[in-house]
Specification:
This protein is about 25% helix and about 35% strand. The protein is an alpha+beta fold.
Length: about 100
């Protein structure tokens, strides 16, 4: 996993099948949302991606860039996945 600059966000609550493991910025400026779940398929679903995007959108980073492979979790949930997002102006600058 990448080292993150951790962000507290008490306004975002777990949604049934997913839980936010961590959020923060990578050194390349992308905002990361790491979700945990009981099943691999849950994290590969569009619902997981939409939830991560909603969380990132609260930090004005709602443009999807990449989603890493599902990995084994090391906490409450057996699986976790990292979703990365950018700001609109960052994406426009990459053209």
């Amino acid at each position: 996993m990448t080292n993150l600059i951790h962000v507290e966000d008490d306004d975002v609550k777990p949604v049934g099948q997913y839980e936010i493991i961590d959020t923060g910025w990578r050194t390349d400026g992308l905002f990361v949302v790491i979700l945990g779940a009981e099943g691999r398929a849950l994290l590969e679903s569009s619902d997981a991606h939409n939830y991560a995007r909603m969380v990132a959108g609260r930090r004005r980073h709602g443009i999807p860039v990449t989603a890493e492979q599902v990995e084994s979790g090391n906490g409450k949930f057996p699986y976790q996945r990292m979703f990365c997002f950018s700001r609109a102006e960052q994406k426009a600058g990459r053209a």
